UniProtKB/TrEMBL annotation:
Source species taxonomy: Bacteria, Pseudomonadati, Bacteroidota, Chitinophagia, Chitinophagales
Source organism per UniProt: Filimonas effusa
Name the UniProt record assigns to this protein: GNAT family N-acetyltransferase
Highest taxon above the source species: Bacteria
Pfam families reported for this sequence: Acetyltransf_1
A GO term, aspect molecular function: acyltransferase activity, transferring groups other than amino-acyl groups
Alphabetical UniProt keywords: Transferase
Coiled-coil residue spans: none
Amino acid sequence: MEYQDIIVRVANSGDVHLASIITDEMESSAKARGTGIAKRSPDYVAHKMLEGKAVIALTTDNDWVGFCYIEEWSHGKFVANSGLIVSPKYRKTGVAKRIKRRIFDLSREKYPESKIFGLTTGLAVMKINSELGYEPVTYSELTDDESFWAGCKSCVNYDILMSKDRKNCMCTAMLYDPQDHYEPKETKEYFEKKSKIYERLLRFKQFLFRKKSGSRKSLFHAFLNF
């Protein structure tokens, strides 16, 4: 599939029929990765399309390629670019980056004063975010809106989140603050310098959080590998 054969645009009412396909792929992709995401219903995704708060990617033959949507929290003080998903047969085409760029720009258009944040378990998404100007942050810098955190209840890692008093989990938090931020070139360079560390940190978190039992020796070995 050629780059120019994929169209990335704001979703509209004509895309609602794809909502079930999108949510099914979100769920199956999360299961395949062994990670969790907050589940969304087809009705919820369709509503985002009708609001003009979603971005969709399609081929010139109208085959579904990818999707992402905007959520707002704390009365618009924060917005999140959520649910990024790409159809398996179109992965590694560079379309995820195009979708993230368009949903980021759409968020800035609709919510110019809002902080934009995201939670991800993927190094690839962290890389894309860093190229847009996002910075890794602690969970305390995200929204305290209870509705947002309630959305995590359907995630397979929810027990981990609650056991850490919502201060840590499998996901890495990233934030773009329109009032106080580095330039994308700076955040990209910083990520490239620290990418190996982030990769090892993600593996270490997966080991610690998923380890239900184990000796001190095994934990020490994991620490050395980190």
